[in-house]
Structures are given as structure tokens and as C-alpha cells.
From TrEMBL:
Highest taxon of the lineage: Bacteria
InterPro entries xref list: GH, GH10, GH10_dom
Reaction equation(s) it catalyzes: Endohydrolysis of (1->4)-beta-D-xylosidic linkages in xylans
Gene that specifies this protein: xynA
Organism: Streptomyces brasiliensis
GO BP annotation list: xylan catabolic process
Gene Ontology MF annotations: endo-1,4-beta-xylanase activity
Alphabetized PROSITE patterns for the sequence: GH10_2
Family: Belongs to the glycosyl hydrolase 10 (cellulase F) family.
Pfam families attached to this UniProt entry: Glyco_hydro_10
Official protein name in the record: Beta-xylanase
UniProt KW keywords: Carbohydrate metabolism, Glycosidase, Hydrolase, Polysaccharide degradation, Signal, Xylan degradation
Lineage, broadest ranks: Bacteria, Bacillati, Actinomycetota, Actinomycetes, Kitasatosporales
Amino acid sequence: QLGLADLAHRHGRYFGSAVDGPALTDSPYLKILGDQFDMVTPANGMKWYATEPQQGVFDWKDGDAIVQLARANHQRVRGHTLVWHSQLPDWLTSREWTASELRAILKKHTFAEVGHYRGKVYSWDVVNEAFNEDGTYRDTIWYQTLGPGYIADALRWAHQADPHAKLYLNDYNLEAIGPKSDAYYRLAKDLKAQGVPLDGVGFQGHLALQYGYPATLEDNLRRFTELGLDTALTEVDVRMQLPATDEKLAEQATWYRDLTEACLAVRHCVGVTVWDYTDKYSWVPGVFPGEGAPLPWDDQLKPAYYALREALD
Ligand code: G3I
């Protein structure tokens, strides 16, 4: 039987999954990952704390393991993530830096990491989660010290280090049209006008049944396409308050179908990635107590899996 990726391929799209270290020794897991998906994103392995644990000392082993796995499976890789406020190493967050020091640190890290993976990743989430819900800049170490120009700088450096990688801005709660996605729209338009190498915007897609489906997703994707950008759903999951009843799982399936159809309906929405494919490895229960069951697989195929097939058929 064709996998999700084979079905997506007929539409010129990919279908991906996040993958993290603990799953790399789980052979039933790896079999499904290889059969169903043609894109993978390391959930943690390429983040700053993992790749530069001490200043100037780089460690590629976690990211390399996933790149090797992807190569063996003939899958592409979404690199995640270069500039973020979270999961930074202690050496970086435990003291104050001047703007010129921090700018040099960011430049060095970007060249080192993108250079190391040059030709091996399809795209980079260059800047992750740069905005607040109200559309103001998130007050991160990067923004505080460098101002908003860090975004264009990081994109330019990443482009120099790997001219073929597709460069993305990526965030959550971007699915609906609203203050946060408007902020990305304005920024993306500005960056394009200035000739900054931005290729796409990633809509993470961490959805929750209790907050309602983002009905403006398709229109929202389309307005970014009209700026000349790719879009992608980069970290999809649909969590719910536990226990997972048949009704909630059916509702969840509808959401998976609808969000996939939204991507297929919009030119240059290049693919969908789920934030791991099985509830077994989801980040959700650890962060939202009492919530979970967000993915299309548990120990078997869930209604959401069949809904994805239906959408891609
Ligand atoms: O590595 C340590 C380990 O040494 C320690 O024993 C263990 C005990 O808690 O923690 C391990 O670190 C965990 C790390 O994942 C690696 O497994 C952290 O506690 C945990 O918080 C961290 O969670 C990750 C989360 O990002 C951090 O923000 C999730 O796995 C990862 O899926 C999640 O992914 C993010 C995307 O990068 C950005 N968008 C949101 C998405 C979900 O939060």
C-alpha cells in the first residue's frame, strides 16, 4: 500500500515527521517512518544546546544521526532551528553580551551549522518563534541585544553558508489570519522588498481541539504565496483533553483532513510535517498535563491517519 508520502507526491507535496533521539533505536517505529514519510525534521538534534554545547565547540552527532537515517530512507531533511530563544546552551544565556559579541556568536554559529549541513538539508527554520501573539517582537536575547535586524542578518548568513537551502521563518499560532500572522506577513513583505533571502514561512500547526479549527488557514497560506514565498505546515499535531473519546478522535481526524486539504489547495504550500507521527513520542503530555493523543498513530492507526489518506487521495 502507498504511504502518506507517496500520496502527497502525486500532488507535488511532501509528507514529513519530526524524529528525536529516543526513537532511533525503536525498529517498529523506524519501519513506519521509512514507509510513510519522505521528509524528516530533527525535533531537538539540530538546536543550539545540542550543536554548540560549549562556546566554539560543535557537536553534530544528534543531527548527523538523523541525516544518515534520512539518507538511508531516501528522505529529505528540514533543518530545525538556527535562531530561537529556547533550548540555548548555558554558556550563551548565563551572561550578558554586547551587541557586537552576540552578533559575532550568531554569525559563527550560523556559518558553522549551515556549513556543516550544506547540501544535506532541504530547508532551514532560520528564525523560530520571533513574534508574540499580539504581533509585537518577542523579547528574546536576540531582539533585546541586536534589535529586529537579527532576522535579516541570520537569513543572509544562512544563505551564504548554503545557497541552495530554502530559508524559513517558523512559528506557532500562525494558522489563522490575525495579529501574529499579520506581523509575519508584513515582515516577509519587507524582507522580500529589501532583497533578503527568505524562501518560506512555516506554520507550525500545534492545534488543540478546545480552541477551535483555524478556518482562515487556506486564505492565510495563500496571501504568503502571493508574496512569492513557499509555505509549509511544519509541526502539526492536534491535541485534546484526555481521555480521548471516539467523538474527539473523529473531530481530530476532520482537522487533519482539513489542514491537509488547505495546503493542497494553495500553490507553493510545499508539504505537511507532523510533530512526530505517534502519540508515543509526542511532546504534548509533558507540557500540557491532562492533554494528549495529538498524532495520527498510537499503538495502531487512528482515525486521523485514514483522514490524511482521504485528503491526499
Ligand atoms: O536532554 C534532556 C535529558 O538529558 C533530561 O534527562 C530530560 C529530563 O527532562 O530532558 C531532556 O531534555 C528535553 C528535550 O526535549 C530533549 O528530549 C527537555 O526536557 C524537553 O523540554 C525538550 O522538549 C522539546 C521542546 O521542543 C522544547 O521546547 C521537545 O522534545 C520538542 O519536540 C519541542 O519542539 C518544539 C519545536 O522545536 C518548536 N515549536 C514547538 C515544539 C513543541 O514544543
